[in-house]
Amino acid sequence: MRDFTFQNATKLIFGKDKEQLVGQESSQYGKKFLLHYGGGSIKSSGLYESVVQSLTEQDIEIFELGGVQPNPRVNLVREGVSICKEHNIDFILAVGGGSVIDSAKAIAAGAKYEGDVWDFFDGKSTVQECLPIGVVLTIPAAGSESSSGTVITNEDGLYKRATGHPSMRPQFAILNPVLTYTLPPYQTACGVTDMIAHILERYFTNEKNVELTDRLSEGALRTIINNAHIVLEDPTNYDARAEIMWSGTIAHNDLLGTGREGDWGSHDIEHEISGIYDIAHGAGLAIVFPAWMKYVYKHDVNRFAQFANRVWDVEIDLNNLEKTALAGIKKTEEFFHSIGMPIRLQEVEIGEEHFEEMAKKGTERGPLGNFVKLYEKDVLEILKLAR
């Protein structure tokens, strides 16, 4: 196990009707707020009205910026930065899922920076400080509600890039599973896939003697898998929705990565795909992750066999660990397919015309991943496996 320092300052407020506390929780951060959200769903559901009422009861002046899209765009971030600077915004409240929260984080960083916010994403500058952020979570998936990172897409060049800083962690996040009842099945499945991928990125490590975080990761994976079909078949099952929502947070709040080095190669490859084709992040991960597994499993057959046994209950064949490992990969692929996720690029009508471009762009700042270092030729082969 590696040495580590773990600190996560986000206050997590979990349960029914907790969004009514948003004004009380955020009033200590100032009186001028940017309310950031996506489309019209928070208005049709009544959540918008509830949040605004809670804020106005605390005499908070609200400036609004809606319109966040999946794979959030840097141009909207720049608009948010301008609002924050023009009106001396004290606090940003993100109401939505990972895309809204990531956009809010980027705005929060840009508001404290004199240059262009994209500098943080292309490596020209590093984040030093941010405006404080709060969250009302509506889509369990990205785990951005208590993580220190953000991912933004720049349509100029079709780049999707990440950056992060401890000050990006939200001050608080309100998690009410009831708010997820009306999520479309496909969006629910994308979220499930995203949180599974976050755990797998940490699980496949070269670090030895990490039994505790192995077991925690395996338990979280089994919990997500066990409850995924329940919420898809019974969207208003509070207990199952609660398990999924809490698992999504745990999957990406850094706890499961303590003492080990994660991989993140699959995420980086998926960013190239969704940067060009704008597909849902979870759908892209369902396609890329099994392909990555097939390409790298021989690097540590024992770990893949352990994954197959502990997560999927595949009996270990001591005479043929490779057979066990491949069975676990197949089970992973079958699960993604069973919840309505694509597992091949052709299922989302993506051909090979940009494979070489994606492999080159993805590795232009060096190889991807840590479990196995992936160079341009490796990324190209993984994309071919994902066809």
Q: Mind explaining what this structure looks like?
A:
The structure is a single chain. The chain has 387 residues and is α/β, with parallel strands linked by helices. It has two domains: 11-179, Rossmann fold (3-Layer(aba) Sandwich), CATH 3.40.50.1970; 183-385, Dehydroquinate synthase-like, alpha domain, CATH 1.20.1090. Helix content is 46%, strand content 11%. It has 14 helices and eight strands. It has helices at residues 22-26, 41-44, 47-56, 74-87, 98-110, 185-203, 211-233, 238-250, 265-277, 281-296, 301-312, 321-338, 355-362, 376-385; strands spanning 11-14, 32-37, 61-65, 91-96, 133-137, 149-154, 159-164, 172-175. The strands form two sheets. A six-stranded parallel beta sheet has the order 1-8-5-4-2-3, sandwiched between helices. Helix 6 runs antiparallel to helix 7 (211-233), helix 7 (211-233) crosses helix 11 (301-312) and helix 13 (355-362) crosses helix 14. The longest helix is centred in the middle third of the chain and has 23 residues, at 211-233. The model has no long low-confidence stretch (mean pLDDT 97).
Topology (SSEs and partners):
Elements: E1 11-14, H1 22-26, E2 32-37, H2 41-44, H3 47-56, E3 61-65, H4 74-87, E4 91-96, H5 98-110, E5 133-137, E6 149-154, E7 159-164, E8 172-175, H6 185-203, H7 211-233, H8 238-250, H9 265-277, H10 281-296, H11 301-312, H12 321-338, H13 355-362, H14 376-385
Parallel strand pairs: 1-8, 2-3, 2-4, 4-5, 5-8
Antiparallel strand pairs: 6-7
Helix pairs in contact: 4-5, 6-7, 6-8, 6-10, 7-8, 7-11, 9-10, 9-13, 10-12, 10-14, 11-12, 13-14
